[in-house]
Amino acid sequence: MAPITEVEGRRVALSNLDKVLYPASGFTKAELLHYYATVADVLLPHLRDRPVSFLRYPDGPDGQLFFTKNVPPGTPDWVTTAEVPRSEGPARMVLVQDLPSLMWAANQVAEFHTHQWVAAEPGEADRLVFDLDPGPPATVVDCCEVALWLRERLAGDGIAAYAKTSGAKGLHLLAGVRGASSERVSEYAKALAVEAERALPELVVHRMTRSLRPGKVFVDWSQNAARKTTAAPYTVRARTEPGVSAPVTWEEVAECRTAREMAFVPADLPPRLAGLGDLLAPLFDREAAGTLPPSA
Known about the structure:
- The protein has 296 residues and is an alpha+beta fold.
- It has helices at residues 29-38, 40-47, 99-106, 140-156, 182-199, 250-255, 269-276, and strands spanning 4-7, 10-13, 20-22, 27-28, 51-56, 66-68, 81-84, 91-95, 110-114, 124-134, 161-165, 171-181, 204-205, 217-220, 230-231, 247-248, 290-291.
- The longest helix is centred in the middle third of the chain and has 18 residues, at 182-199.
- The chain is globular and about 55 Å long.
- The N and C termini lie far apart (60 Å).
């Protein structure tokens, strides 16, 4: 039987704590849970009120990986859930609102993925996202160059962008927006991705077609669609190493010269947070959120 831990008055079962999830580094499930407890204060605001999809990897990234979108069987009745619309009919998804629900979810061994909208306003975007994915031999260093171009282009429309690593091989750009549907944000993001390809034709591609991507950065604008999700800030990824999707400063982006500079593991985050705080905190300022220009 899994040991029961009390977290803020809730009883949470934590199982298989000694299991090694990442054989290359010996990183265990207990260490994963400890990491999430340590960063909870900055992670939870990025999850709160957003329906969460889980990319589960209970036997480590070399085992079976599967997405869970609906509320999993056995979910405690104190975990908040919300009904969300889908094309095939409404579904119920988990909301990770507090430390007990975070620790329960982390015990499932999962990446946390969220929509660009909150449960109360499905399809009304409050985030814009670009996923910059390098096609080898391109690396995150190339993503940084593209990110700087996109940052300036967004600023031209009065939209402030913030960067984080994907936790894998690329970079994510996030911006707060208001007054736009997911459809409109997708339209705008696609237009900027096309514009980036025209401005940086040797470096950028805006289409997912695999044959176009070697040596270029795929500017994935499609994650702005209402049905899509993106890896949340601070989530640990199901990769060979326990990479973290970590916020980075624009100075770090501008000065990046090697892929290693944009690779972070759980042990890196506490000292970064102590020195930098949550670099994505400005996303919570609704008054500072950008307004998209009128569509053409």
